[in-house]
TrEMBL record:
NCBIfam families with a match to the protein in the record: PRK11797.1
Catalysis performed (reactions): beta-D-ribopyranose = beta-D-ribofuranose
GO CC terms, sorted: cytosol
Residues of the signal peptide: none
Assembly with partners or alone: Homodecamer.
Function (record text): Catalyzes the interconversion of beta-pyran and beta-furan forms of D-ribose.
Gene Ontology terms: biological process: D-ribose catabolic process
Organism: Leuconostoc carnosum (strain JB16)
Keywords: Carbohydrate metabolism, Cytoplasm, Isomerase
MF GO annotations: D-ribose pyranase activity; intramolecular lyase activity; monosaccharide binding
Name of the protein this chain belongs to: D-ribose pyranase
Family assignment from sequence similarity: Belongs to the RbsD / FucU family. RbsD subfamily.
Compartments it resides in: Cytoplasm
Length: 132
């Protein structure tokens, strides 16, 4: 049995398989996931697990150089935006795109992790960095 880190075998596998500039998406319970994108469904009930809890676990293991967020989060969910951006240093580029574009870009993600989050525009695409 794994002693620490991500215990979910699917998430652990996807994170281990990430290369430089690969994408991994994490989002709310209502996000439509393209058929060609692997969906790892963690949702248990409304709010569980939260997007931030899942993101924190992933960030413990994944180097990130860029994130993509929906432009709409600025007006519709500024509290979540603040929580998300606090988790990244100045070396991580934040790119705002339309919510429609974000959903379309899920096709390029290695996987989408579905949480129980139910706040507006609570979706993020992580672009992996390198550790050297």
């Amino acid at each position: 049995m794994k002693k620490k880190g991500i215990l979910n075998s699917d998430i652990s596998r996807v994170v281990a398989d990430m290369g430089h500039m690969d994408w991994l998406a994490i989002g709310d319970a209502g996000t439509p996931v393209p058929r060609e994108t692997e969906k790892i469904d963690l949702s248990i009930k409304k709010g569980l697990p939260s997007l931030l809890a899942v993101l924190d676990a992933v960030l413990d293991e994944l180097a990130v150089e860029k994130i993509y967020l929906a432009e709409e989060i600025r007006q519709q969910n500024p509290a979540m935006l603040e929580q998300l951006t606090q988790r990244f240093g100045e070396s991580v580029t934040v790119v705002f795109i339309s919510h429609i574009a974000l959903k379309q870009n899920l096709k390029q993600s290695k996987a989408f992790i579905r949480t129980g989050e139910e706040t507006p525009f609570a979706n993020i695409i992580l672009e992996s960095g390198v550790i050297f």
